[in-house]
TrEMBL record:
Signal peptide: none annotated. GO terms for cellular component: nucleus. Its main location: nucleus. Pfam families: HTH_Tnp_Tc3_2. Transmembrane segments: none annotated. Residues 69-139 form the Transposase Tc1-like domain. GO terms for molecular function: DNA binding. It is found in: Nucleus. This is Transposable element Tcb1 transposase. It comes from Stegodyphus mimosarum (African social velvet spider). GO terms for biological process: DNA integration; DNA transposition.
Length: 324
């Protein structure tokens, strides 16, 4: 791409002089090697105001003042969840100045504040990688008998009116169902209250005989982090649960080394949604069938997969493990 240059005043004078002598714009263009459109605009401007000097401008004036820019920055830092539209409305309400969302982006970008961008996986910090690496080194030599004492529960919402929770313990699978309260909005399906209901009404009851030997693992999802959930786990699994805020630390942001994340739910969903679901009864039946098809040999292979992933995690120095 060629760089645009401006005509100096001397060359502008030559162009106007030759045109006033009767030469055509095409002739002047050929003689000086300047585009005819440039010469036409220069001649038109000379006829309009008798001046051909270049006009200098400071550009479009800024919509916001320095004080308003500082107000935007302060508001954005005070509430990190504010959108550009929210900040624009708050500025208009406080100062009477109305700006677009793009202006908000530019002003905040000038001080290093940018909107969150969706990514394929949550970026890991140096601390995250260090903790994940340390955890992999500690557990890489665990035996199948040691892993058999760890329970990996989870509670993803496979449908708006159903929560399916799977229990993986050694070579056993125990499917059980939760429910959605009629008055609860769908977006709160996996809230801490619902997760606690699932634990107290299903998990704890089904594990009464196994609890003295079982360690519960949670991956630190928002429903797992609730105070009521952690309090209940401390009562039922005193000193024997792993997770965020638990007595046994779990490496942050590590679904890639959780069996129910890297194997079980992918297997179940692939089978459940292979064909279009007609109704909720059909969905429940498919989930039950998919879980029932998980046999002991498949679970045994899952424990080998954990060892393989921990080995890769150690080689990658704590980075995400993306193995298919």
């Amino acid at each position: 791409m060629t760089q645009r240059t401006h005509l100096d005043d001397f060359l502008r004078g030559i162009i106007i002089g030759r045109l006033e002598c009767g030469r055509t714009k095409l002739k002047v263009s050929d003689e000086l090697g300047i585009a005819q459109s440039v010469i036409s605009r220069l001649w038109q401007r000379f006829q309009d105001d008798g001046n051909v000097s270049r006009r200098y401008s400071t550009g479009r004036p800024r919509v916001t003042t320095p004080n308003e820019d500082r107000y935007l920055a302060f508001t954005a830092k005070r509430n990190r969840r504010s959108t550009a539209s929210d900040l624009s409305r708050q500025l208009s309400s406080a100062t009477g100045t109305t700006i677009s969302r793009q202006t908000v982006y530019r002003r905040l970008g000038q001080i290093g504040l940018y909107a969150h961008r969706p990514v394929r996986c949550v970026p890991l910090t140096a601390t995250h990688c260090r903790l994940r690496l340390a955890w992999s080194r500690e557990h890489i030599l665990w035996t199948p008998q040691q892993w058999a004492c760890v329970m990996f529960p989870t509670s993803p919402a496979l449908a708006c009116s159903l929560i399916l929770a799977g229990l993986s313990y050694g070579d056993h699978q125990a499917p059980f169902y939760g429910w959605q309260r009629p008055s609860s909005p769908c977006k709160h399906l996996c809230a801490s209250v619902v997760h606690l209901d699932m634990l107290e009404n299903f998990v704890f009851l089904q594990l009464e005989e196994l609890q003295p030997h079982v360690f519960l693992q949670q991956d630190g999802a928002p429903p797992h982090w609730g105070i009521i959930v952690r309090s209940s786990l401390n009562d039922h699994f005193t000193g024997r649960w792993t997770g965020r805020g638990g007595p046994i630390p779990w490496p942050p942001r590590s679904p890639d080394i959780t069996p129910l994340s890297f194997f079980h739910w992918g297997f179940v969903k692939d089978n459940v949604y292979r064909r279009r679901v007609s109704n909720i009864d059909d969905l429940k039946a498919r989930i039950t069938t998919a879980i029932a098809s998980v046999v002991a040999d498949m679970l045994a292979g899952t424990w080998c997969e954990i060892e393989y992933r921990l080995d890769i995690l150690r080689a990658m120095k704590g980075a995400h493990v993306d193995v298919h």
